[in-house]
Design brief:
Number of helices: 8
Helix content: 40-55%
Largest sheet: 2 strands, antiparallel
Number of strands: 4
Strand content: 5-15%
Structural class: mainly alpha
């Protein structure tokens, strides 16, 4: 539905600009805390796979030690020792994801949609999981149905289960479902149950 797509993009743009403006003092404060709490850059850049398989750069506040992936891309683990003390709080509160408001503004991400995965993992997951590339039919989101319905995943098995939720979202997408996901995400943030 072209009208629905344009409306969703309009909402993403307005929300992104307003949220970025309102949260600017918080973003600056977090940047300073990250900068002075551990060595390394404030922002962490990662390549992710988006709409149509196109690769884009996703931004986060750095929550791990410098050179956390010097041995190559790795799945994040429960109680990952690479996560800094400040990083644990940023992840639990989802504050580490706030720089993705910029991705929302420029249009390579949406507020709601399947979470984008890293190219190295996508190539592996496509071999292991049938129909995994169907996720690429939707603009990836800051949050999604899989994020509010399934705990943090860090394996092929978890990705298989999360794909079921992503496919459900793509098939049943509606404004009502987006609103439901938005408020469920707020509950996750308020409870501090992120990772």
């Amino acid at each position: 539905d072209p009208v629905g797509i344009r409306f969703k993009r309009f909402v993403d743009l307005v929300f992104g600009i307003l949220a970025f403006t309102i949260l600017a003092p918080l973003l600056l404060t977090v940047a300073l805390v990250v900068r002075f709490s551990s060595p390394g850059r404030v922002l962490y850049k990662q390549e992710r796979v988006g709409l149509g398989g196109k690769v884009f750069t996703l931004y986060k506040f750095r929550s791990m030690v410098q050179d956390a992936e010097r041995l190559g891309p790795q799945w994040s683990e429960l109680n990952d020792p690479r996560v800094t003390t400040v990083g644990r709080f940023l992840r639990a509160s989802r504050i580490d994801e706030l720089p993705q408001l910029w991705n929302l503004i420029v249009g390579n991400m949406s507020l709601i949609g399947p979470r984008p995965e890293r190219p190295e993992f996508v190539s592996e997951l496509k071999k292991e999981i049938p129909f995994y590339d169907v996720r690429e039919l939707a603009v990836p989101g800051l949050t999604g149905w899989a994020q509010v319905k399934y705990p943090y995943g860090s394996s092929v098995k978890d990705s298989y289960r999360k794909l079921e939720y992503d496919l459900y979202y793509i098939k049943n997408h509606s404004v009502r479902l987006d609103i439901t996901i938005f408020f469920k995400t707020l509950m996750v943030v308020l409870k501090g149950s992120g990772r």
